[in-house]
């Protein structure tokens, strides 16, 4: 089965167990799953996209590059790219998780995309991973509108707080159930809570609520 996945992906693993781990959801194995790979993959993806955008848009400002990157690494984009790979049926899920509605599996696909990127990175090197990521994200990279307004609440909140010389927010995110996430920001003795079908969506929600409060109470 793993060899078939390699053929579909167009990448041959030296350590094929990394591929197996990247597609193992925590509902299938609570001890050995793709959560740590997801963490690493998120960082690797952000670095690759940041570098790529910096190279092809040398005259753009930091704010503009940040907006473009947010459009590419958002959950919907990761899910779309992963589904286009055509390997969703190979994800290892518990029987119960396998039977949940498609919409509640979107965060699982998003996480698997990040895990797969990390698996390739650990199996090869940065250049190989970068070339692979740029290739599979080709449509997203070519269709990006550099003049699109920034709808990324996390970026807007960060910019607002930096301008006000405030400490940047810390997101306390957790899964409350299959396909349900919660994220919390504690700020000046106030607690803001956001919800979503993925961790990223919940963090965007709580960032939006926090930004709304700060903007309305800005002196």
From TrEMBL:
Catalytic reaction(s) noted: Endonucleolytic cleavage to 5'-phosphomonoester
Domain DRBM: 152-216
Co-factor(s): Mg(2+)
UniProt entry tagged with the keyword Magnesium: yes
Database matches in Pfam families: dsrm, Ribonucleas_3_3
A Gene Ontology cellular-component term: cytoplasm
Subcellular location: Cytoplasm
Annotated active site: 42, 114
Signal peptide as annotated in the record: none
Any one of the GO BP annotations: rRNA processing
Enzymatic class: hydrolase
Annotated EC: 3.1.26.3
Ranges for domain RNase III: 2-125
Record GO terms (molecular function): double-stranded RNA binding; metal ion binding; ribonuclease III activity; rRNA binding
Main location as per UniProt: cytoplasm
Binding positions (Mg(2+)): 38, 111, 114
Alphabetically ordered keywords of this record: Cytoplasm, Endonuclease, Hydrolase, Magnesium, Metal-binding, mRNA processing, Nuclease, RNA-binding, rRNA processing, rRNA-binding, tRNA processing
HAMAP family per UniProt: RNase_III
UniProt subunit comment: Homodimer.
Function field: Digests double-stranded RNA. Involved in the processing of primary rRNA transcript to yield the immediate precursors to the large and small rRNAs (23S and 16S). Processes some mRNAs, and tRNAs when they are encoded in the rRNA operon. Processes pre-crRNA and tracrRNA of type II CRISPR loci if present in the organism.
Recorded family membership: Belongs to the ribonuclease III family.
Protein name (Swiss-Prot/TrEMBL): Ribonuclease 3
């Amino acid at each position: 089965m793993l060899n078939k996945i390699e053929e579909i992906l167009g990448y041959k693993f030296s350590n094929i167990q990394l591929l197996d781990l990247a597609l193992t959801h925590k509902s299938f194995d609570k001890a050995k799953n793709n959560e740590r790979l997801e963490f690493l993959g998120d960082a690797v993806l952000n670095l690759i996209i940041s570098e790529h955008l910096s190279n092809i848009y040398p005259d753009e400002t930091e704010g503009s590059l940040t907006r473009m990157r947010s459009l590419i690494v958002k959950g919907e984009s990761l899910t779309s790219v992963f589904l286009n790979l055509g390997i969703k049926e190979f994800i290892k899920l518990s029987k119960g998780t396998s039977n949940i509605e498609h919409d509640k599996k979107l965060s699982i696909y998003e996480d698997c995309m990040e895990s797969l990127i990390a698996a390739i990175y650990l199996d090869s090197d940065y250049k190989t991973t970068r070339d692979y990521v740029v290739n599979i994200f080709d449509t997203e990279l070519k269709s990006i509108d550099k003049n699109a307004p920034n709808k990324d609440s996390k970026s807007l909140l960060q910019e607002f707080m930096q301008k006000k010389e405030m400490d940047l927010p810390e997101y306390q995110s957790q899964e409350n159930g299959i396909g349900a996430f919660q994220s919390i920001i504690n700020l000046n003795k106030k607690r803001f809570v956001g919800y979503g079908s993925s961790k990223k969506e919940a963090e965007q929600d709580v960032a939006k609520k926090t930004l709304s409060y700060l903007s309305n109470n800005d002196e």
